[in-house]
C-alpha cells in the first residue's frame, strides 16, 4: 500500500458535512460554490474548518495535511500548507 497523500481541498462544516472539490480547486473555490448554491448561511460558512481530503478519503485539517504532505514528498517543509503549494 502506498503512502497517504493529499488529493483535494475540503471544508468541514459545523454539521459535519464535508464540502470538497477536485484539484486544482482552492478553498476559495469551495467557499464560492457553497455560497452560490445557498447551502449554508454566511455565518455558518465561516465556522467551517478548512482542510484537505487524503487519497484514503479522510478529511484532515491543515496541520494534519501538512504532516502528510511533507512525509509523502508533496511539499517541502513550510510554515503552513496551502493548496497552491500542492497544485
Instruction: Look at the structure and give the mean pLDDT.
Output: 89
Order of helices and strands: EEHHEEHH
Number of helices: 4
Shape: elongated
Largest sheet: 4 strands, antiparallel
* SS elements, strand count: 4
Uncertain regions spanning at least 5 consecutive residues: none
Radius of gyration equals 13 Å
Biggest sheet strand order reads 2-1-3-4
Summed up, the domain count is: 1
Please report the distance between the alpha carbons of the first and last residues.
23 Å
Estimated share of beta-strand residues: 15-25%
Helix residue percentage: 25-40%
Structural class: alpha+beta
How would you describe this structure to a colleague?
The structure is a single chain. The relative contact order is 0.25. With 87 residues, this protein is an alpha+beta fold. The two termini are 23 Å apart. Helix content is 33%, strand content 24%. It has a four-stranded antiparallel β-sheet, covered by helices on one side. It has one domain (6-86). The model has no long low-confidence stretch (mean pLDDT 89). The chain has helices at residues 27-37, 42-45, 62-71, 83-86; strands at 6-12, 18-22, 49-54, 59-61.
Amino acid at each position: 500500500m502506498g503512502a497517504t497523500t493529499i488529493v483535494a481541498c475540503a471544508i468541514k462544516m459545523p454539521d459535519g458535512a464535508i464540502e470538497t472539490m477536485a484539484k486544482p480547486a482552492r478553498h476559495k473555490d469551495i467557499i464560492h460554490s457553497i455560497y452560490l448554491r445557498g447551502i449554508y448561511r454566511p455565518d455558518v460558512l465561516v465556522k467551517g474548518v478548512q482542510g484537505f481530503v487524503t487519497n484514503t478519503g479522510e478529511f484532515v485539517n491543515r496541520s494534519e495535511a501538512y504532516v502528510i504532505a511533507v512525509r509523502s514528498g508533496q511539499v517541502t517543509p513550510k510554515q503552513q500548507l496551502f493548496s497552491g503549494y500542492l497544485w
